[in-house]
């Protein structure tokens, strides 16, 4: 359960969004689509405070953040443990092996014992099909494998919400499939896992999302089921965006 | 003709000089450690553009890099007592101006010199650390201190190491100037030996051989460290000898929580 109330963010004088309200129920798979530069990433990055909102509040089941209010390190760590993020550029720790990448948060943040942590890490690496690469360094992996490690690292934290910011857009087209397959499997296997996903892979969005938000001009212009948004968009800008997108796909 | 050059003397002098190797290493290591810590501090001030302080430190760095270390040693040697005299005069302290240990002048000078020379290198290395990895650690919930220790410093160290290694070697050779402050390390000891038997060439040749050997050993050590900490850059797949304990995976079925199979 995520409650976003009156959220605003600007960079210097450039307002990205203001007074944004959004509620996401547990287990929902929410896809955010919209043109480049609309502020989708900024919104997602506010959810784990990689960006600091100027105004408003973000509430998870157990912990809330109020813009402008002081937050202790303990609260901040707790807040960040509500979510885990998969990054467009993978952002793996290059000096750590695949296994150490997945262990990092378990040992340092969750403070699990080595054996507990390894058990979880190896499970997640099995899930993404990379357990036999546990001793590799990121530099020895393909882009698709790197991103699957990124997914394992995120899943290992077992947080209630998974944040995915264009997880396949840095990949060569022939590698996109394996990562989407892994994600589809992750999503299907964990009905309780809330997912907030930014993606330009509209076919994938259509398959997995329970709700689609069209984000543009500093706010959510339209939302609905994938069926509603893709087949029957109401908003003119959504229509434009989707038709431009379809042209690109079919050209 | 008496022996113009006596190789036996060189061999005799080497162990006598090596008896003072601990002094040389002590000065080197203490100055290196203090220098790196101060250098890190200067780098942080520069990165965060701390007002006033960063201007003052920029002047300090420029001054240190723009003056010979021998001159700096004399400046500290004659300067610290003057500072102490002023302190005694204005604050009524009773610091002993004539009894400052020579080692202090040497450590102060070399540490500051090391800090000035390394600060730029450290700053560059810190700023070259991948911002994406810092974000990933932040998103996991690590504190800034954990990120500094676990991500930033190890990565910056890899970037800075070649330059730091060269600085270490210069520092080690520069310790031969410590005699200026009447500190007896290897070179000063050599001067004393030569003063007794007037065999200057043999002593300085012995010293040259020792410093050369030290430099070679240090270079090899740095290379070893470098090899170890850049393992992650290797291209070939890791050796099959796995450190992974696959017994932990006895129940992989527990991973698949419901519904779907893995393919
Ligand atoms: N740290 C920052 N400082 C200043 N401006 C920023 C910063 N981050 C993002 N912006 C600006 O905010 C706007 C929204 O960026 P954001 O990355 O959220 O867009 P997006 O919808 O994710 O786009 P894309 O589809 O290209 O990823 C852009 O104009 C961007 O230039
Ligand atoms: Mg983006």
TrEMBL record, chain A:
Record membrane topology: Peripheral membrane protein
Domain of life from the UniProt record: Bacteria
Database matches in Pfam families: ABC_tran
Transmembrane spans: none
Major location category of this protein: membrane
Compartment(s) of residence: Cell membrane
UniProt KW Coiled coil keyword: no
InterPro entries on file: AAA+_ATPase, ABC_ATPase_HisP-typ, ABC_transporter-like_ATP-bd, ABC_transporter-like_CS, MetN_ABC_transporter-like, P-loop_NTPase
Domain ABC transporter: 2-242
Keyword annotations of the record: ATP-binding, Cell membrane, Membrane, Nucleotide-binding, Transport
Record lineage: Bacteria, Bacillati, Bacillota, Bacilli, Lactobacillales
Keyword Transport attributed: yes
Protein name, UniProt field: Amino acid ABC transporter ATP-binding protein
GO molecular function: ATP binding
From TrEMBL, chain B:
Pfam family, one: BPD_transp_1
InterPro entries per UniProt: AA_ABC_transptr_permease_3TM, ArtM/GltK/GlnP/TcyL/YhdX-like, MetI-like, MetI-like_sf
Keyword Signal belongs to the record: no
Localization per Swiss-Prot or TrEMBL: Cell membrane
Name by which UniProt lists this protein: Amino acid ABC transporter permease
Keywords: Amino-acid transport, Cell membrane, Membrane, Transmembrane, Transmembrane helix, Transport
Domain ABC transmembrane type-1 residues, every copy: 21-222
Keyword presence, Transport: yes
SUPFAM superfamilies found in the cross-reference section: MetI-like
Recorded family membership: Belongs to the binding-protein-dependent transport system permease family.
